[in-house]
# Entry
Amino acid sequence: METMTYRPKNAFAGYKTNEIMGLTPVQLILKVYDYVIVNSKKHDYEKVNAGLTQLIASLNFDYKEVSLGFFRIYRYCQAESKKGNYEEIEKHIGELRSAWAKAFKLA
# Structure
């Protein structure tokens, strides 16, 4: 008879998947901003870049003016991460996060 092994990592992954799937688009954006900010504080280039890449991928270029503005900020932050200037990323992404949270009355 095969015994079942408890794998907390898999259980946690399932929980996180369910949590993320239940978020609104704005809440997802805030989560990605948080991810970028946290990993900037850790000076983790790979994760910062992954978060910024996800933000770029989420842009809707049907609204060119707005999307291009965000695109430029995200690309600037990617360039700053290559230089190791994580404080600059925290500043810009933190300001964007704050603006989104205020606009949609989320914390």
